[in-house]
Fold this sequence. Notes:
The protein is an alpha+beta fold. It has one domain. 52% of the residues lie in helices and 18% in strands. The mean pLDDT is 89.
Amino acid sequence: MRNSFLSFLRLTRAEKVFFCHALLLLTRYRIRLQTTSLEKLIELVRQETQCYRQQKKTDLALHRLSRLIQIAAKLVPFSTCLSNALAGQVLFTANNHPTTLHIGVRNTPEKGFEAHAWLTLDGAILLGHLPDLRSYKELPSIQKDRP
């Protein structure tokens, strides 16, 4: 824990602000996934994206934004791929990176029915990459509103 705190202190101010926003959204979406429908949650994501767009943008590199979200997700108990993708959708879009949220499903004899969510930008996976991602049948994409 001490090492994590020291790592946080070494971040730039912009990274700290972005990380805290990521932590807040990840926690909010993780809780909301237990208490609301996906339809209402997608509407909340749209509303929060508009709110975050009005705030100061960061000039951090795209890979750095992804990494900060992934690190923050490790601190949220029971974080899921969907809560990660939803938080990423807000944060990337607010920083002028038009992302697409993907949800896929598969049914295997070993594990049964599974779902997975991931986020892409121009076809490249930003969050939610899995080695066997091709085994998921993608549901229709949910694209963010273009700025």
